[in-house]
Structure formats: structure tokens, C-alpha cells
Amino acid sequence: xxxxxxxxxxxxxxxxxxRRTRIKVLLxxxxxxxxxxxxxxxDTVNLIEQHLLCKGSSRLPALIVAATFxxxxxxxAGVVGDIHIxxxxxxxxxxxxxxxxxxxxxxxxxxxxxxxAAQGKHxxxxxxxxxxxxxxxxxxxARSKYDETGGVEIAILDCIGFLxxxxxxxxxxxxxxxDQYQALVLHEPDSAVSQGLKEAFLALRQAAxxxx
Length: 212
Fold this sequence. Notes:
Helix 1 packs parallel to helix 8 and helix 2 packs antiparallel against helix 6. The chain has 212 residues and is of the alpha/beta class. The chain has a single domain, classed as Dna-directed Rna Polymerases I, Ii, And Iii 27 Kd Polypeptide, Chain: A, domain 1 (3-Layer(aba) Sandwich).
């Protein structure tokens, strides 16, 4: 009788199993007490700020904003800009959001308006959400485009400021936001959000919830 050979697992398979195991273990430490008081809005902002400070976080601002829209059940679609917002039941794109992991410059505003014109679709509001500070002259340049474009309003918001306003305005959605953000982070391919960044968020959330 010929015995079957047992080959050792391939390194890539072993590494994948280990990654999934680490995520599973970290997930088990999140929401351990079902009826526990959710993190406050400010604690949630602090948690996200810590995650943004981690290495390789350039994709996170887009996920932060996407999570707010998902939590608030705002319609989304996309071509120009990272996120588009639609009025429920309507057919027109009315707002587009573009995330920037750097300071917004005049050229960014000009390119956004060129893309809008090239698409030939009606846009009432184009929002830049940036991880950097916003200079007053850039805000003024954006404001000046309203009349020139016949009513396209350009807004420039910093990412954390946007999130803070959202969480205080929709206070009851703060846990929904965090759950949506977690799901988006974990769903991203490792090429966009690394395994380390995924593990870091779960560890940070676990620590924040344990502190309460």
C-alpha cells in the first residue's frame, strides 16, 4: 500500500492563515459587552486621529467619509471625485467629494472644475476633504469660483473637522459610523490598507472601548 505524502503548507498559505487568525482574535475584543455605552463623539474622533497617524494611512480619509455617508444612509455613486452623493429618489448628482492626503492647491480646484465640465453633468457642490490645514487664500479662491461657474460651490474641509461636525450633528450614529469604518477598513485589499493598519485599528478600538 502506497502511503500518501504529506507536504508542508506553502509559506503564502501559512501567512494568510496567520493574518486571518490575528484579525479574528482582535475582532473578538471589539464590542465585547453588547449593551455597553458607545464611545463618545470626541473619543471616536480621537480614535480615528490615532489611526490616521499610523504609517501608510493615505487611503483612510476616503474611508472615513464613506463611512459617514453609509452610516447616514446617503446615496452614493462615482466617477469624478472619490465619492458622489445623490438625493434619494433623484437622478442628478448634486455633490461630489474628493479626498486629499495633502494640502489643497489652486490647481486641484481648477482640475476639479475641468472634470465637471468634461462630464457635462450638473454638480451643485464639490467638496475637498483634506488631511492638511487649509490656507485662507485657497478658501477665497474656491469661493470666487461660484459666480464664474454659474453656481458650482467649492468647499474645502479638513478631514477631522468634518468628522467631528458629523458625529456631533448625528450623535446617535456614532457607533454606526465606527462599525461602518471598521468594515470598510477590513474589506480593503492589503495593497490599499495594509494588514498592519487593519490590526492597528482593531487594537486601538479595543483599547478605547476597554478604557470606558
